[in-house]
Design brief:
The chain is of the alpha+beta class. Helix content is 34%, strand content 43%. The protein contains 4 helices and 7 strands; from the N terminus they run βααββαββββα.
Length: 164
């Protein structure tokens, strides 16, 4: 499964990245907008001029179909590892669920480029699930979750930007 989404943001790329990697903002995003049951910034180092490496761990109770809940449980705890390349204005990431990690591969990127008075964000995701009989169902669930999560994250960031 491959997914590409585009969003226009009312800020320059530098402002986008400064919010995106702000630990307080990240915590509020997960608690207030994404409905995460837990959020832990396991590590974050570097800066926006040299690059940022970050590891997040968060739990969620997604609205998953029966087969997905049966495989992954009611709460999905995920580890997200990302690396920001300031030259490319891109953060690449891998997402690993706490359950079935050996059968699930999720990776992607977020890139930002200046556009008019703001910027344009491009979100790319690729997911492969190797679970006999359930792989396509889980991949469709991942795609639906990714779309919903990105829509909520962009709306939350736009509210933050409008607030000043």
């Amino acid at each position: 499964m491959k997914l590409t989404l585009h969003y226009d943001m009312d800020c320059p790329p530098e402002r986008f990245w400064s919010l995106y990697f702000d630990p307080d903002y990240t915590t509020r995003l997960h608690r207030e907008a994404l409905g995460s049951t837990s959020i832990n910034i396991v590590e974050q180092h570097g800066d926006l001029t040299t690059g940022v490496d970050r590891t997040l761990r968060y739990g969620q109770h997604p609205d998953a179909p029966g087969p997905v809940k049966k495989l992954f449980g009611d709460e999905i705890v995920t580890t997200e590892v990302s690396t920001f390349d300031p030259g490319a204005q891109t953060s690449t990431f891998t997402v690993t669920p706490g359950t079935m990690a050996d059968k699930t591969e999720i990776r992607g990127s977020i890139s930002v480029e200046a556009a008019g008075d703001g910027c344009r964000q491009t979100f790319n995701l690729e997911a492969k699930v190797r679970i006999f009989g359930a792989g396509p169902v889980v991949e469709r669930f991942i795609e639906r979750q990714a779309r919903a999560t990105q829509d909520k994250a962009v709306a939350f960031m736009n509210e933050e930007l409008a607030a000043g």
